[in-house]
Automatic annotation (TrEMBL):
Name of the protein in its database record: Crp/Fnr family transcriptional regulator
Domain Cyclic nucleotide-binding: 31-118
Signal sequence interval, chain numbering: none
Pfam family of the protein (one): cNMP_binding
InterPro entries, per database record: cNMP-bd_dom, cNMP-bd_dom_sf, RmlC-like_jellyroll
Amino acid sequence: MPYENILQNIRRYVSLTPQEEDAFCALLTVKKIKRRELLLREGDVCTDEYYVNSGCFREYFVDSKGFEHNLYFAIEDWWISDLYSRTQMAPSYCNIVALEDSELVQIGHLTLEKFMEEVPRLERFFRMSYEQSLVNQHLRNLQMLHMTADERYIHFRERYPKLANRIPQKHIATFLGLTPEFFNTVHAKVMRLKRPGI
């Protein structure tokens, strides 16, 4: 069943009735996307919420000098969207691109909003998900201010071991606020530590 994974994801936080699950699944579509294909392009309005069934994505923006800055990664069992663009119905500042051939479960923002009015428990699920996302972003901001480059990279590898081995190092570098050149030095140093989990 293409929607079993997304239902399991939701069941971790809330319980829907079988009828509610069936009604929710009727609103979903499966979207396949090739490696290097853009899911969202800067300037477009994000109109959907996506759950990653398989594959890997990165969300990034390009600054005025043409440098890419990675903001977010998503792999299996994660959600991805441009929250700002989607909720404000405004042009996105970001791009979302597939790093691998991927499969997504897609639901339109307006469709989801209407369904959450009918099923408040699902609204609770998304509220809890957004809260966790905000907590993670807040912690990341604090780490950028208080951690050394080595500490940030160690924390990244310990917290997201599946990401560390699937994402090119140049993308991890900009996510951590480092140049690829300096990141190479940090990576070599951290790998010499050979700590469990990294």
